[in-house]
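Changelog-linked ticket: pyridoxal-5'-phosphate example.
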Amino acid sequence: MDDKQMLMIPGPTPVPEKVLLAMAKHPIGHRSSEFSQIIETVNHHLKWLFQTQHDVLTVAASGTGAVEAGIINFLSPGDKVLVGSNGKFGDRWVQIAKAFGLDVQVIAADWGQPLDTEAFRTALESNPQIKAAIVTHSETSTGVLNDIETINRHVKAHGQALIIVDAVTSLGAYNLPVDELGLDVVATGSQKGFMIPPGLGFIAVSPKAWEAYEQATIPKFYFDLGKYRKTAAKNSTPFTPPVNLYFGLHTALEMMKAEGLEAIFARHERHKQATRAAAKALNLPLFAGDDCASPAVTSILPDGVDAEQIRAVMKKRFDIALAGGQDHLKGKLFRIGHLGFVCDRDILAAVSALEATLQELGYERFSPGSGLAAAHRVLLSR
Ligand SMILES: *Cc1c(COP(=O)(O)O)cnc(C)c1O
């Protein structure tokens, strides 16, 4: 049957019909007063979502572009930076930092483990020259949520260093009060917690980061955030933006405002807990521990049943898309996304289909119905 696909991957995430319809229009001129009004409203709402009074700038890029912009605007070649790496995305920020000539010290942890906050403390205490710590909050490749609050405390104690956060799968899913924590640069992308398709990147910038911007000499043009700041002040953009994505963003942000931040965070927490409870009941080993589990994605490292076969049956029989493992975990891990426009019904449907899939594949280490019952119990209790 056509058109019944359910996306349970951590991006792109499902898009509400209201948002799709908002985008299904002729583009309008990006210098028109109508569009200017949309930019004004959207920028206002973005500040609400990021919990900041300062700039949240929008670029036409995927999340990687947003993080790249968040790095190159505030640093100079040769600057010493700490980069946390405990998964695919952390690895990517190491590559970007090196590509732009930064002096990178990698703070690594095994995939599936959280970053060691003490390693950040020691490195920061021993080197007053460090210019920035670059940290992935929710490491989507493994389903680990890094302890950004503690790492940030160590960065604050250092004084000079900026904290640059990849919040791509945490913003809009987990409480990340940008101003209250004093985070300097926070980057994310539209296809994750925003309930709209890929194509927009967002970067929150603190006043301290703007001071660093004045000294920063890494070459930049399209991603020069100074340009975006200047035009945002006039409810405009430096270049032609993806106009229709802005229509969608406008609608999606209004939906988020109507739901409220606390309710959004509680929903993601509930879905995380329900998915994890189901995995435990099904005797499927969770890749990330209970104390460091991402609100956006649950990673499972099955034993006695093949991860790729699970994904194939889920897709073929039930039209439910799950994500696979990345890099060395390809073929071993599967990941259930529960980010953005996801409701309780989606979780129950995915868990039921997963049970049926496991039975079909001859995996018998659970009693039928136990995963669904466990997920349902969590959903009822919260
Ligand atoms: C998706 C994602 C990104 C950005 O990836 P793009 O494909 O460039 O949008 C960055 N970091 C994390 C943690 C992600 O999940």
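Closing comment: Example verified and attached. The mean pLDDT is 97. The chain is about 45% helix and 15% strand.
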